[in-house]
Amino acid sequence: MSLHPTTCHQEISKRPYCGRFAPSPTGDLHLGSLMVAVATALQAHVAGGHWLLRIEDVDETRVVAGSAQRIMHSLQAHGLQWQGEVWIQSQRKARYEQALTQLLTQGDAFFCACSRADLPPGGVYPGTCRDGLPEERSGRAYRLRVDDAQVAFVDTIQGRTEQDLAKDVGDFIIRRADGLFAYQLAVVLDDADQHITQVVRGADLLDSTPRQILLQQRLGLEQPDYFHLPLLLGPDGKKLSKRNFSNPLSDDEPLLGLRLVMALMGHKMPPEIHTVAAFWAWAMAHWDQRLIPRRHSIRLGHTEPAVILQQLQQELII
Ligand SMILES: [Zn+2]
User: Fold this and answer.
1) Which of 174, 217, 219, 248 could make a disulfide contact with 185, Cβ separation 3.0–4.6 Å?
2) 130 Cα–ligand 1 center, Å
3) Which comes out higher in pLDDT, residue 42 or 117?
4) How far is the CA of 228 from the centre of ligand 1 (A)?
5) Does domain 93-229 have CATH number 3.40.50.620?
6) Does pTM top 0.70 for this prediction?
7) From ligand 1's centre to the CA of 141, what distance in Å?
8) Interior CA angle at 284 toward 76 and 10, to 5°?
């Protein structure tokens, strides 16, 4: 047995908890991604399981050079240490290719000639190439046939979610026209191959979960539990970005970010915690996922982390 497992071992009778943090290297670690990292590390800790790191760079066109290294540095500065080797999606194309072949062989996937301009407004695929490419058109992308799939699941934080995939999404892309595999396919295979038992991530991915569950079903893979944290929005109501939140985290001042994400997740920490080690000792002893607001998003009241923390602490006292 390896001392540094990169996947969690699967047993027939009992699946040991395995969680992961899976950032995209499209920018630096921000408050929302730190919240996900802290929550998933604590979930793994209280379950006595493993916590793995995966770099989700399947969409190579969006990768920002150096950001994976900066994210790893920030995680360590905040006292977050993953176990084992880091998985990197761009190194797993052979596995994704194998799954695509399986889906094509099963008749679950098809070659599609359509470009965005061929789709109706709203973007739901009308099934044009489902039974073969139209004459004189050549294939560009691969899509999954959704048929009449309705997917429902119970998310730990967001509750019951269901989607009529044919009506809301349509046959969706699993390999893009530029040859890159779609995130939906890659994430499902990575979670299965790393034996992830619980997926902790932001609620912006709640809507893509039914597509991932359908892929798990078609590929014969086990379905993990889902745990979608509220998405953090800037004071302007928009997703956090450089524009509404210019300097959200500092590796030199990790306690501020750590305290802030715990407050956002409903935990009131005592003031006498002055080191990252003391933070983790407290957090591991007091983590209670029932305190997390059961909301799809949280709108921050300010752009200064210290001011937001002060506001939250006042709310938590009341
Ligand atoms: Zn088509």
Assistant:
1) 174
2) 7
3) 42
4) 32
5) yes
6) yes
7) 8
8) 80
Whole-angstrom CA distances from 255 to 33, 53, 113, 149, 263 are 15, 21, 51, 45, 12
Q: Where are the domains of the chain?
A: 18-86+230-317, 93-229
Contact 8, 47 (CB under 8 A): no
Q: What are the tokens at 311?
A: 């506001």
CB 56 within 8 A of CB 183: yes
184 Cα–ligand 1 center, Å? 18
The class of domain 18-86+230-317 in CATH terms is: alpha beta
Alpha carbon of 177 to ligand 1 centroid (Å): 11
Concatenate the DSSP letters of all residues of 128-171 into one string.
TTTTSPPTT----EEEE--TT-EEEEEETTTEEEEEEHHHHT-S
234-259 pLDDT, tens digit per residue, is 888 888 766 666 556 889 999 999 99
Quote the mean pLDDT of the chain.
Answer: 92
Number of other residues whose CB lies within 10 A of the CB of residue 20: 26
On the question of a common fold for 18-86+230-317 and 93-229, the answer reads: yes
Q: How big is the chain, counted in residues?
A: 318
Task: Report strand pairing: 150-155 vs 159-164.
Answer: antiparallel
Q: Whole-angstrom Cα distance, residue 1 to residue 19?
A: 19
Dihedral of alpha carbons 96, 98, 101, 106, sign: negative
Task: Give every CB contact of residue 41 below 8 A, 6+ residues apart in sequence.
Answer: 19, 21, 51, 80
State how far the Cα of 237 lies from the Cα of 4, in Å rounded to an integer.
42
